[in-house]
Write a structure and sequence with these properties.
With 235 residues, this protein is an alpha/beta fold. It contains 8 helices and 9 strands.
Length: 235
């Protein structure tokens, strides 16, 4: 997942979200414009099972997305198909939101099934990586389609080495730790096992360069233009 020049890939967090409203078509197009290698975005389900790109379970006005149809969504909230199109050839890290305690938590793993189907239907295996804080969710994606690359997204509160062990045991090819939990040992252990380390969310140029020195594979950032400049200067 890292670039051919040996630098970490730069993934725009919810698009170029420091410059444009997050998880919008404008943010994804801006990420393309500034030269990001990829985009990270979030997906949830609507009441009529549309794949909705939105970080929170509720809209800004307080309405839960799971209670709305696609037609009820504000015009700036896109569906996944349109978001991928707006990313125009970039890698797209689709984070599936299926969090216990939130109004759209779904034990049937509908989103895993639907995202895997979309990737297969559109032949997007080379462009889409699926991640989640739920190991069960990415296990479901991988079981449905082993050709989809999955990343285990981890909380800073977790034991990262235990999470890496779980990712390896479950056959996943990427670990997505918060940048404050990344160290040389974690990166080395992951790479020895053939697991990429894609870290989030990093906006400080010095921190980006430090992480690049550890050999992380991708840096998720709200400021992809800053990241590109910082990593180019390091090179």
């Amino acid at each position: 997942m890292s670039r051919l020049d040996g630098l970490p890939a730069v993934w725009a967090h919810r698009g170029a979200s420091a410059a444009r409203p997050e998880n919008t078509i404008d943010a994804f197009r801006e990420a393309v414009r500034v030269g990001a290698d990829g985009v990270e975005l979030d997906v949830r389900r609507s009441a009529d099972t549309a794949l909705v790109v939105h970080h929170d379970a509720v809209l800004a006005d307080g309405r839960p997305i799971a209670t709305l149809t696609a037609a009820d969504l504000p015009p700036d909230v896109p569906l996944l198909d349109a978001a991928i199109d707006a990313c125009d050839g970039l890698l797209v890290n689709v984070e599936i939101k299926n969090i216990e305690g939130e109004p759209d938590h779904d034990l049937t793993e509908y989103l895993a099934t639907a995202v895997a189907a979309l990737v297969a239907d559109r032949s997007l295996h080379h462009r889409v990586l699926v991640s989640s804080f739920s190991l069960t969710t990415i296990d479901c994606v991988a079981e449905l389609d082993p050709d989809i690359c999955c990343g285990y997204l981890t909380s800073p509160r977790w034991d990262q080495h235990e999470a890496l062990r779980q990712a390896i045991d479950h056959g996943h090819k990427a670990l997505h730790p918060h940048h404050l939990t990344v160290n040389a040992e974690l990166v080395e252990r992951a790479h020895d096992a053939g697991v990429a380390v894609n870290t989030w969310t990093v906006d400080d140029p010095d921190r980006m360069r430090w992480l690049a020195g550890l050999g992380v594979d991708a840096i998720v950032t709200n400021v992809p233009d800053v990241a590109i400049d910082a990593l180019t200067q390091r090179a």
